[in-house]
Specification:
The structure is a single chain. By secondary structure, the protein is an alpha+beta fold. The protein contains three helices and four strands, in the order αββααββ. A four-stranded mixed β-sheet has the order 1-3-4-2. The longest helix is centred in the middle third of the chain and has 24 residues. The two termini are 23 Å apart.
Amino acid sequence: MCLYIFSLFLYIINYSTSITMLLTTTPNIEGKTIMTYIGVVTGETIIGANFFKDFKASLTDVFGGRSGTYERTLREAKDTAMKEMEDRAARMGANAVIGIDLDYETLGNGGSMMMVSCSGTAVVVAP
């Protein structure tokens, strides 16, 4: 019995490190069978606004249009939080994260910082 559990453990470790992590906001993955629910996994990042970004964004507010600077910064923060969650899931032995939820919050005086957090359920799906 112990040998079987150890073999399964090695299979999961080798399998999870040899493929790309599947990430989805849905509670399941079409065409895949979830073998094991491992647990909740999270990723967070906090970014601070700086004077130059604020100045450029204020010009956008006055003249209209989208703030490409802030959009890039938010996208970078989201990618960082998602990568952190993915890495944690891999260390837990998962090869997928399902039910991902992304949250954006402002922090600090006058909303000078932005926190991006994500959470999901780390799982092992059959190949």
